[in-house]
Design goal:
Structural class of chain B: alpha/beta
CATH architecture of the largest domain in chain A: 3-Layer(aba) Sandwich
CATH class of the largest domain in chain A: Alpha Beta
CATH superfamily of the largest domain in chain A: Aspartate/ornithine carbamoyltransferase
Structural class of chain A: alpha/beta
Shape of chain B: globular
Number of helices of chain B: 4
Number of domains of chain A: 2
Strand order of the largest sheet of chain B: 3-2-4-5-6
Shape of chain A: globular
Largest sheet of chain A: 5 strands, parallel
Radius of gyration of chain B: 16 Å
Oligomer: heterodimer
Number of strands of chain B: 8
Order of helices and strands of chain A: HEHEHEHEHEHEEHEHHHEHH
CATH topology of the largest domain in chain A: Rossmann fold
Order of helices and strands of chain B: EHEHEHEHEEEE
Radius of gyration of chain A: 19 Å
Helix content of chain B: 25-40%
Strand order of the largest sheet of chain A: 7-6-5-8-9
CATH architecture of chain B: 3-Layer(aba) Sandwich
Largest interface: A-B, 21 and 20 residues
């Protein structure tokens, strides 16, 4: 993946594509958060639109189903006055190599300025970024188990709005770490922003090998894992995992790893609860917690628009220089 | 860059306040709205508000998202959001900036204002208007008009004290 030369950056170190949190500097991440802060005010006005990307064409290229990510990207692009096209590709019909190469040729002819890519295979957005002509940007909207960097940034933004000093935080990420691109991107972002204690909490079957290398501690007991945490991030348990051998059942998972008010007592009293959505009530999170004051789940969605506006305008601005 | 000259800011501010008082004399104070353009314009607007003892808060406009040089310089690094603490609809707006040069900033500011609503009128107030206009935009109230050549710049330093400097590319 992102090894030798970081394809996301131009020669001057400016963000040209947004594919992965890995390899980005703290300054870059902070700059995204600061810009997003400005964009939140746009959503509070009578006319929720600024002319920054007027005349630009943004293509939502989704090889994998998504509702909230695609719609918030679409809304973000529209609030920046860009023209938006949504292309959903049933990737199951063709094999990966053919599908990507063929699609790309067509898309190049459309003179798009930006591609927002979601793909079930890790590395697909980077593959596309290497193919597009200069001046065209690619944003990763989630690829395989690899990364979901805009989700991680909107979570960092949400955390900063409630707990402004990253250096003082203990953050616990609970749930299916193994299959979660969100968790991976979040861990990188939290590390870069200086969070001293990051914990992952899950049964052994849902923890990837050597995750400790990323600088996190591993817990198998939820109470222990979220003890004195400032931030608890719950991950969605994908239903298909329950049918495989990895987990016995949804209710059993809830009994041992679900976030209930009783479990949450172990965290700090002012701890915030987050979830990238969509939530499975009664499987990874108790309804009462999801709807409680501590839960920022809906605020995450709103913040996602401003954060995506910031990232899109930064990369388009840099790509056109 | 060398500093050539420092202009008397107090004198310019007095001049602006005098002209402005005259201009807004017949306007219902409840229908007035003051807006400063980031950053210098906000400083000047606050000084004027103090001097004229205005009751409403001064709005702040960050025109970074409305600039016409986005494709040349990317996203502007200024990140403070715009804040208009009053309804724009049906209000006489006093738009304040420190220096009027090409007119492009004022164009961008007016575009942004109309995304908040439809004001009854907009008057442009600047501390100093320098030569080099590129758009048909002129100040309604102005502390002084000066002629500068291409390599010369006016810069407002502040907020306390406000200081206008004329510099030259060296």
């Amino acid at each position: 993946m992102m090894v030798k030369q970081n394809i996301q950056l131009d020669a001057a170190g400016r963000l040209k594509h947004f594919l992965s949190i890995e390899g980005l500097s703290k300054t870059t991440l902070i700059s995204i958060l600061d810009h997003a802060e400005t964009f939140t005010s746009v959503g509070e006005r009578a006319v929720k639109k600024v002319p920054l990307l007027r005349g630009k064409t943004v293509v939502n290229l989704f090889f994998e189903a998504s509702t909230r990510t695609r719609t918030t990207f679409e809304l973000a692009a529209k609030r920046l006055s860009a023209d938006v096209m949504n292309i959903n590709i049933d990737a199951s019909a063709t094999s990966k190599g053919e599908s990507l190469a063929d699609t790309l040729r067509t898309l190049e002819a459309m003179q798009a300025d930006m591609f927002i890519v979601r793909h079930q295979d890790s590395g697909a957005p980077e593959f596309i970024a290497r193919q597009v002509s200069s001046g065209v940007s690619v944003i990763n909207a989630g690829d395989g188990r690899h990364a979901h960097p805009t989700q991680a940034m909107l979570d960092m933004f949400t955390i900063r709005r409630h707990k402004p000093i990253f250096e003082n935080l203990t953050v616990a990420i609970v749930g299916d770490i193994k299959h979660s691109r969100v968790a991976r991107s979040e861990i990188h972002a939290l590390k870069i922003l200086g969070v001293p204690e990051i914990r992952v909490v899950a049964p052994k079957t849902l923890i990837p090998a050597e995750i400790e290398r990323l600088g996190v501690s591993v817990h198998h007991d939820i109470k222990q894992g979220i003890k004195d945490a400032d931030v608890v991030i719950m991950l969605r348990l994908q239903k298909e995992r329950m049918s495989s051998a990895l987990l016995p059942s949804g209710s059993e998972f809830f009994n041992t790893y679900g976030l209930t008010s009783k479990n949450l007592e172990a965290a700090k009293t002012d701890a915030i609860v987050m979830h990238p959505g969509p939530i499975n009530r009664g499987i990874e999170i108790d309804s009462a917690i999801a709807d409680s004051k501590q839960s920022l789940i809906l605020e995450q969605v709103t913040n996602g628009i401003a954060v995506r506006m910031a990232i899109m305008s930064l990369v388009v601005g840099n790509a056109s220089l | 860059m060398t500093i050539d000259e420092t202009l008397d800011t107090t004198k310019l501010l007095n001049e602006v306040c005098g002209q402005l008082k005259d201009r807004i004399r017949h306007i219902d104070p409840n229908k007035l709205g003051f807006i400063g353009i980031h950053t210098g314009g906000v400083w000047v607007a606050n000084k004027i508000a103090e001097e004229l003892q205005l009751k409403t808060n001064v709005g702040e406009l960050n025109i970074a998202f409305y600039r016409d040089d986005f494709s040349k310089i990317g996203v502007h690094p200024t990140v403070k959001p715009s804040q208009l603490p009053f309804e724009v609809n049906g209000r006489h707006l006093i738009l304040v900036d420190d220096i009027l040069h090409t007119g492009r900033t004022v164009r961008a500011a007016m575009n942004e204002i109309f995304d908040y609503g439809r004001p009854l009128s907009i008057s442009l107030v600047v501390l100093i208007a320098r030569s080099g206009r590129e758009l048909p935009i002129h100040a309604d109230v102005c502390g002084a008009d000066i002629n500068l050549s291409k390599g010369e710049h006016v810069k407002l330093r502040g907020p306390e004290p406000l200081r206008l400097e004329i510099c030259r590319d060296s």
